Amino acid sequence: MALASGVRFAPRALLRPWALLRGTTLGRTEPAAGGGGDGARRFGSQRVLVEPDAASGVAVMKLRNPSNALSLELLTELVISLEKLENDKTFRGIILTSDCPRVFCAGLDLTEICGRNPAHCAEYWKAMQELWLRMYLSSLVLVAAINGACPAGGCIIALSCDCRVLADNPKYRIGLNETLLGIIAPFWLKDTYVNTIGHRASEQALQLGSLFPPAEALQVGLVDQVVPEDQVQSTALSEMARWLAVPDHARQLTKNMMRKATADRLLRQRDADTQNFVSFVCRDSIQKSLQAYLEKLRQRKG
Ligand SMILES: CCCCCCCC/C=C\C/C=C/C(=O)SCCNC(=O)CCNC(=O)[C@H](O)C(C)(C)COP(=O)(O)OP(=O)(O)OC[C@H]1O[C@@H](n2cnc3c(N)ncnc32)[C@H](O)[C@@H]1OP(=O)(O)O
């Protein structure tokens, strides 16, 4: 499997991705609902459903994990689906959206870093880096159709796309709220924020752990469009058409020119970033607060 980073990254899950997917449908194709014609074959895995439309060259990728928390399995399946579409010259764009009601993506799956050993935390963080690198540098146009809450790691996923369309629902807030959980966004995430909304706005939002409701997210430039919930998909498709109207080679080289320095910074310090993450999250104090936070989330549900 070709990796965005070259040779250094080899988490067990990605060296043996199919082992994680035993019993799932990844790699199998089936007719899309209401489809059946050319390009209407969908494929997917337990946690990622891909609905490709060969005629338009656009695939819709739907996340379908509980709350779309970014478990190691979900990260792995996302990378595999992305790679599959990248390698198929039929496709020029992906619309990323959620199949879970009210949640686009709940961010890092905290159960992957709470009560786990350092080796697991390292493997998990490398998978997170890998997904970000692949999405941020993807040659395809990525449009996020954000149809639910989008905190922290969910916002990372959205920020790594080229364009963001958010449903106009005050409950669907988006932002990097890490500080409020007592954790710190890594430098590459901070860089992505700065690239999107500028330095001063990022400084404020990161320190305050701001989660922006739709109108404010639009105002600060975190999303490109806010539309009624039932128009998120159609607006994402219109945005996609606008981006695909540009010749691929020119758009791709321009994207690379704009993003490469940010990605290279992580590539140069990937191991150190992993070590920082592991030593930080494995601290007793951080483990205790993660445990308390997870407990609160579970109780809130009941
Ligand atoms: C010096 C250098 C140090 C470097 C350190 C780097 C640290 C890393 C820094 C940044 C990267 C990113 C970090 C993150 O992403 S942290 C995660 C942040 N996410 C959240 O805080 C969201 C938490 N969830 C919610 O607020 C809500 O669940 C919701 C708004 C997303 C959805 O609400 P609702 O539909 O009401 O769902 P429930 O609350 O009922 O949840 C359902 C179910 O899912 C569980 N769950 C939710 N979120 C998570 C999660 N992020 N991880 C694990 N599990 C989650 C929840 O507990 C319920 O579970 P169940 O009871 O078992 O069904």
From TrEMBL:
Compartments in which it is found: Mitochondrion matrix
Keywords: Acetylation, Fatty acid metabolism, Isomerase, Lipid metabolism, Mitochondrion, Transit peptide
Main localization, broad class: mitochondrion
Pfam families membership: ECH_1
Pathway field: Lipid metabolism; fatty acid beta-oxidation
Subunit annotation: Homotrimer.
Protein name according to UniProt: Enoyl-CoA delta isomerase 1, mitochondrial
Organism: Bos mutus grunniens
Taxonomic lineage of the native organism: Eukaryota, Metazoa, Chordata, Craniata, Vertebrata
